[in-house]
Amino acid sequence: MDKMKMTVMTAVAVSALSFAYTNAMAGEVVWWTPNWGQARAEKLAADFQKANPDITIKMEITTANGLPQRILTALQSGATPDIIEVQHPWVQGYAHNGLVLPVDDVIEDKDDYNKAAINYDTYDGKLYGIPYRIECVGMLYNISDFQAAGLDPANPPQTWAQWTDAAKKLTTGGKFGMAITGGGEVGNTVTRLLPLIWMNGGDVISVDGKTAVVNTPEAVAAVKFYTDFYKNKYSPDSTLQNDGIANRQLFIAGKVSMYQAGQFDIAPIMQAKPDMKLGAMATPHPEGKQTAGIIGGWSYVIPKDAKNPDDARKFIKFLATSDNQGFFTDTFPARASALSQPRFQDPMLKQFAAMLPFGRPAPNTPRWVEISQALFDGVQRVLSGDQDPQASMDQAKDEIQALLDS
């Protein structure tokens, strides 16, 4: 087989993948990479193979839905690829449980990296992930819909009261004013709700990481505000099932007028509907308070049971160069030097770049994946009408406290 050619496989079943990993060839690096970056991943893998003909990159394409559990299952079973792309907040949990390898030797220029991203990937003084993408969620809106509703698109909502008022005015003629995420990939809901909790003075766990505080009045008020978009019928009937991608499709289809998103949604929207007049704004905040966002993003990790960790390190070092990071990311690169690339000078990105100074990392705890699930489940209970916000967050608090105490 000509090793200059790249083998691309699609991940369809853990059992099928296990066989592939068990029988991985020497000089072969198996890379789990999400489907939204597949075309760029293929180019980078091909470029690497041209320079390293003794190494074959075998790609397994992942999808967002169910990804945290799929990765954890693979890491715990030992049937792992050599490289996995994971969200920053997941890394410490993997490191705490001894499921990934330290990668301090892969990069020599940590000072060029976003500090919050590096901190996400650091556990017990060692680096366990290489961040390549950072982002803060903001808002996208349909300028034409604003104009039709008598709203000024040049002065979009800045406060929660203005946000609710706009959603109400935009909900007309079968169109919904504001789409929230209530289902699908857990992280979509958490990255959109948690900043609202923060900007209202609440949190999910205490600063010292020992106490669950998601049921305080400030946190509960934010949960109520978020879920009221659905309760008041400003968010689509399908909200309980909708993740970020579903909301983007509804936005493209003209079914919703605004939703929380990142700059990663701009290109697919304009490709699908090039005549749309698209606006971007910071996430509105409570009166008299500041906006907030989660510094999110993605990192590369090498599983403890990787079959070819040495070549995996070599490939990650290639992916982590400033040029390659800037090319690969859907949002902003984790390296400051990569921000000088022309693609990041687009005026549409200014609102998302402006969110970064208000960005905070998710709580620093190895149990964050499970805590996120508890918060997500609590939101679903409110959206489904099973519990009111206070009762649901009381239950979430007990579940999160049990995780922190274990």
Question: Could you please describe the fold and organization of this structure?
Answer:
- The chain has 406 residues and is an alpha/beta fold.
- It folds into two domains: 192 residues, Periplasmic binding protein-like II (D-Maltodextrin-Binding Protein, domain 2), CATH 3.40.190; 193 residues, Periplasmic binding protein-like II (D-Maltodextrin-Binding Protein, domain 2, 3-Layer(aba) Sandwich), CATH 3.40.190.
- The chain has a seven-stranded mixed β-sheet. It has a three-stranded antiparallel β-sheet with strand order 9-8-10.
- A hairpin with a 2-residue loop joins strand 5 and strand 6.
- Helix 8 packs across helix 9, helix 8 packs across helix 15 and helix 15 packs antiparallel against helix 16.
- The N terminus is likely disordered.
What's a concise summary of this model?
By secondary structure, the protein is an alpha/beta fold. Helix content is 41%, strand content 14%. Residues 1-24 have low confidence and may be disordered.
